Amino acid sequence: MSDDRSLENAGFIPEVTGDGSATFYSEEFGEHFHCRQGAYTDAQRNYVDAANIPELAQAERLTILDVCYGLGYNTAAALDTIGRVNPDCQVTIRALEINAVVVRDAIANNLIHHWTPATQQILKTLATEHQYKSPTLDMELLIGDARQTLQPLAGNGWQADAILFDPFSPTRCPQLWTVEFFSLTAQCLAKNGILATYSCAAAVRSAMELAGFSIGSFPGVGRTWPCTIATKDQRPLPGLSQQEQEHLQTRAAVPYRDPTLKATAAAIIAQRQQQQQQSTLESTSAWRRRWLTGHGAQR
Ligand SMILES: C[S@@+](CC[C@H](N)C(=O)[O-])C[C@H]1O[C@@H](n2cnc3c(N)ncnc32)[C@H](O)[C@@H]1O
Known about the structure:
- By secondary structure, the chain is α/β, with parallel strands linked by helices.
- It has helices spanning 39-49, 53-56, 73-85, 100-108, 117-129, 146-155, 179-187, 202-210, 242-247, 265-278, 284-291; strands at 15-16, 22-23, 25-26, 31-32, 61-67, 90-97, 131-133, 137-143, 160-165, 189-197, 214-218, 227-231.
- The protein starts with 14 loop residues before the first strand and ends in an 8-residue tail after the last helix.
- S-adenosylmethionine (SAM) binds at residues 33, 43, 68, 70-74, 96-99, 102, 145-146, 166-168, 173, 175-176.
């Protein structure tokens, strides 16, 4: 994929979410960029707070990987939080995003007005120059497929204290939820670092475990289903409920695979479906009957 997105180059249209902040809808992926209950709240609570950034920012240095920068809300919430907690913190951020148009349109539609003026200025500079340097911030926005743009960082031994992991949902964008992409991401997480993501899909969690993460569950704000945090060390994390543990024993937990980090979404989905058909794991519908009668599907 390139960043010349013919479907979406015409421009994104803002839609207001439950907390008054706006998001976009992606025609290409058939999904909104944030949960409809509140885009700013999602960034602050389900990413920045979940990844423990208020505490991490008390250190002298903090390094963050923002996987799927989009409108920049997760980075913006992190910057505002760090500015409040410890303005002297030396911050390094690398953000990955395939579509420069969405970055630009967030600014063009003035969707960033909630953040502090300093953070707004950083986001504006990033949208045009794709980097921002100051005495306390070294930030680069790497435009391209995250499966490729992350490889040089991993190859150079680059390490993040916090990873904000926010692709479109696994059925829409499976290429960023594979065992192989999580393995690449895990290489970039410091030993005592933490990854936060909204998804609790069994395929996602099993891929994370196969990539070497320990996983924990937390109740996302404004989200129907729990979110996931992950580490590479053995520190205790909030445990998975019985329901969540049993979900990992079903065919829903067959992970997405992409050994070359270049496969199309369709190929990744087809390969997983084949694996599921051959699987001896319990059917997910049996698990759903036990736990979810009357509820919706899990992202
Ligand atoms: C759910 S949105 C992210 C929202 C964002 N974190 C924010 O705060 O606005 C997912 C983003 O992933 C981007 N994306 C999709 N496929 C990608 C890929 N292969 N590599 C990098 N970014 C990708 C989309 O363009 C979109 O901006």
